[in-house]
Design goal:
By secondary structure, the chain is of the alpha/beta class. The protein folds into 2 domains: 15-42 and 259-450, Enolpyruvate transferase domain (UDP-n-acetylglucosamine1-carboxyvinyl-transferase, Chain), CATH 3.65.10.10; 46-247, UDP-n-acetylglucosamine1-carboxyvinyl-transferase, Chain. The protein has helices spanning 15-19, 46-58, 72-83, 117-127, 148-156, 193-201, 221-232, 262-275, 295-301, 335-341, 364-374, 404-416, 435-440; strands at residues 26-28, 37-39, 60-66, 88-91, 94-100, 109-112, 134-137, 161-163, 172-174, 182-188, 209-217, 238-240, 243-246, 255-257, 278-282, 305-308, 312-316, 325-327, 349-352, 379-382, 385-388, 396-398, 420-423. The chain has a 4-stranded mixed sheet, with helices on one face. Helix 2 (46-58) runs parallel beside helix 3. The N and C termini lie close together (11 Å).
Length: 458
């Protein structure tokens, strides 16, 4: 891959590049012939990468991000930053980004975020710092996803933002002119990204900002990630009793290493659990701030041996799985992984407290229930979760709803049962463009050295 991103001199990275690796509309997953013994690297965390990109752009000077995730989501954010006038360069295993001390270089920019939820929620507060106006839009599904709570919080802090379409939905128009500061209530029941987005731009408000969460907070660990990345770039957030206080400050440019993605690791750890094999994911250990690492503990409760050291996480399957009851509110990105392996467990698996996932890339609860039923699995759908019963898998084509996590999670079913096909495999490019190559490492672990965090090119 040459340096740069699409639209800049020397460009060679775009969403179409990674999607172009999938010439077929579907892929069939071959069952494993034997339990794997493998070490599988995974790319950098999407959540950490996109937070670091926003903060680096707001910082004073040039930052270097090591091991960033390069995928559809991060592409849309980097392309947006480039269109806004920031210098962003992809160089091998790193990204260079020149921060402008809270200044947005260009005005009157149309920003397209695709289906990247983090970009859609993180950019508007940042754009409020510019001179505007800015128009923020995405794919049709993005226009169905909620954003009103973010707009309300921004307005409470004196930011000028409104809707270009139906109220409460994208597209947005951010007029700019700065963020006054003060106090705001941020609804946390639909997405933690609203709070994260406002927090990251708050150091550049005119006065101190105090954010109070109302309605509960889903996916709480992601706020910890936001605070950790902010702290790494020199800004502290004071948390007290459900309130988050940020004083006027400036981020400092730095070199920053992005740790491997815990959500992405869940698929490979689950493969070990299913097959009775052993899988180790390097670079992801007990010091991680990512809540999704707790998925390994769910596998432990299902009967697996789990080791989480400073340098890796490893799961060893015991040859049988027990059903579990799991409140997955804080680690909801991994609920689909659990649902996909649940039919192979002894006893029912009950997944609760994930109603907010109905507002993500698709209505994930409904989609998972539909696809498990398509595979012949008995499943009960509730407003906030699912109950999955053990069953025999029937051959079927799994629809993915252009949702990367459904494609990756349901591929695990095909490792254990013949005739499972995944539609639209290119949708994995949202977070792990070479996912199916990495899945093959379960069969050929010696090839692991040929893979890095970079998307494999066709």
């Amino acid at each position: 891959m040459r340096d740069g991103i699409r639209g800049a001199p020397g460009v060679d990275f775009s969403a179409e590049d990674v999607r172009g690796r999938f010439p077929d509309d579907e892929v069939e997953i071959r069952p494993l012939e034997r339990p794997p013994e493998a070490e599988i690297p995974v790319p950098g965390s999407k959540s950490v990468t996109n937070r670091a990109l926003i903060i680096a752009a707001l910082a004073d000077g040039e930052s270097i991000l090591e091991n960033p995730l390069l995928s559809d989501d991060s592409f849309h954010l980097m392309k947006s930053l480039h269109d806004l006038g920031f210098e962003v360069r992809v160089e091998g295993e790193r990204v260079r980004i020149s921060g402008r001390r809270g200044i947005i270089p260009r005005r009157s920019v149309e920003v397209f975020v695709g289906n990247a939820g983090t970009a859609a929620r993180f950019l508007p507060p940042m754009l409020a710092l510019g001179e505007g106006p800015y128009f923020v839009d995405g794919v049709p599904r993005m226009r169905e996803r909620p954003v009103g709570d973010l707009v309300d919080a921004m307005r409470s802090l004196g930011a000028s933002v409104g809707y270009a379409g139906e109220g409460g939905r994208f597209p947005l128009v951010v007029e700019g002119g700065g963020i006054r500061g003060g106090k705001a209530r941020v609804e946390g029941g639909k997405s933690s990204q609203f709070l994260s987005g406002v927090m990251m731009s708050s150091p550049y408000a005119d006065t101190a900002v105090e954010l109070e969460v109302s309605g509960g907070l889903v996916s709480r660990p992601y706020i910890g990630i936001t605070m950790d990345v902010m702290r790494s770039f020199g800004v502290e957030v004071e948390e007290r009793g459900g309130r988050f206080a940020i004083e006027p400050s400036k981020y400092r440019a730095r070199e920053y290493a992005v740790e491997p993605d815990a959500s992405g690791a869940s698929y490979f750890l689950a493969a070990a659990a299913l097959s009775g094999g052993r899988v180790r994911v390097p670079g992801l250990g007990r010091g991680s701030k990512q809540g999704d690492l707790r998925f390994a503990e769910i596998l432990r409760s299902m009967g697996c041996e789990v080791e989480i050291s400073e340098e890796y996480v490893e799961v060893r399957g015991a040859g049988r799985l027990s059903g579990v009851r799991a409140d997955m509110n804080e680690i909801s990105d991994t609920f689909i992984t659990l649902a996909a392996i649940a039919p192979f467990a002894e006893g029912e698996t009950v997944i609760t407290n994930i109603e907010h996932t109905r507002h993500q890339e698709t209505d994930r609860i409904s989609a998972v229930a539909t696809e498990l039923s398509r595979l012949g699995v008995e499943v009960e759908e509730r407003r906030d979760g699912l109950t999955v019963y053990p069953g025999v898998i029937s051959p079927a084509l799994v629809e993915t709803y252009d949702d990367h996590r459904i494609a990756m999670a349901f591929s695990l079913v095909g490792l254990m049962a013949p005739g499972v096909r995944i539609s639209n495999p290119a949708c994995v490019s949202k977070t792990m463009p070479d996912y199916f190559d990495r899945l093959e490492l379960l069969r050929r672990p010696s090839d692991a050295a040929m893979l890095s965090s970079r998307p494999t090119r066709a």
